[in-house]
Please model this.
Amino acid sequence: MMEAKPNTIYRALDRKAAAITEFTMRQYRTKASTWVVLGVGLVAISLVMLIYVDVMSTGFESIDNDGDSEDPDGDGYPTGQENKYGTDPYMATSNPGLLTPSIEPEPASNYIDEDGFDISISGTAATQSTGYDDDGDCRESDRTNSQKDTNGNGIVCDIELRYNQYQGDWNIDSDRYVDEDPDDAAYAAEATHMAFVLGIGKMGFVLLLGMFLPLFLATGLIREEMNDGTMHFMLAKPIARTEVFLYRILGYLGIVWPYFIAIGLLFALISGFIGPSDSFFRFQDLGVWLAIIFATMMASFVYGMLFCALGTMWRFGIVLAIPFAAWELGMCIVSMGAPEAAILRFSVIGWALMIVDAAAVIVWPNMELFILQGRTMDDFGLIWSTSNALNFFYSEPGVGGSGLVSAVVATVILLVQGAVFWFVGGAIFKGKEIE
Model:
């Protein structure tokens, strides 16, 4: 027979911790309000997902940026084909069909997006070359090297991005005929997808779920038991009130954290299969989605501690919590436009969103160049709008250093914030009389 372990004070505390945590989780599971709050959160972000699915399934219509798919003389031959065979695109009596041998008309769609859209990067940190002359009109043998290298960088038929240290931005300078008719539909799909992942991750998960679920679920963790008189049963045996505070929070996290993980993985699968990709699934996005889930979990932990402390302070603690929620909402908006702003260091959301930004920098390198290239494409607003949307949600981490370092720093700060709010909440709880 196995010898029974001694019933030490540590084992007794472990049993109390497990009992309080399990009791809290059971309370949540049996309350209709819990499922209402979780259901509302799911419905809210699912509506955004449905919009994304509709947009991606509908697709984007490419635009003939250089106009060579048009047939101004109405002879059935697009301008691009007439240019290729040396006939006059503005004269119906001059077309490839009158040549010997006769040439059949090509579909106008052959001259839309004929240059593709290249985002491969090479070169130094100060000057980087990107783009390729897909249709070959820059590389034609009758062109001189000076005509093929109009940006003067010594590389024929390329696009050069030069970093201006005074402006703190990149400028684009392309050789003539390179990417003059890029695949704007492919760019719009890629930019829309990445903007969606960052947008729903930051606004839907970290802000909406990570803050407003604690607002409704954690504020009354201690206060409700004090008002109902059931707190006496938890304190009947020797256990510190700060521990009760912590164990109640652990019970709350035992409900919301699996909820975040399940929804985050579901959305990652949906967007991974629907998003634009050369393979059947966008595996590279999983790193960003995992960061979104983790950032939401950390935010819900800190906000849970804060709102529970406010609820312990006053029976109408949610009234005290609303100004904090409004402040965090404002800081979330500030982080989109000025992630380096010092005021963000005095918030929770600023550090949580930094985790997402850090993951995006690691998973999607050269994002700023991708956004800049989109802004240079003449597409009557299609690419401009998607590029701006992506630029709004994408930000480099505001503390400098690599993405991994930024993520670690942000995580440590959030843990410290949670510990501080636990200490404050426990101190408030100690000073309260239980009726």
About this structure: The radius of gyration is 29 Å.
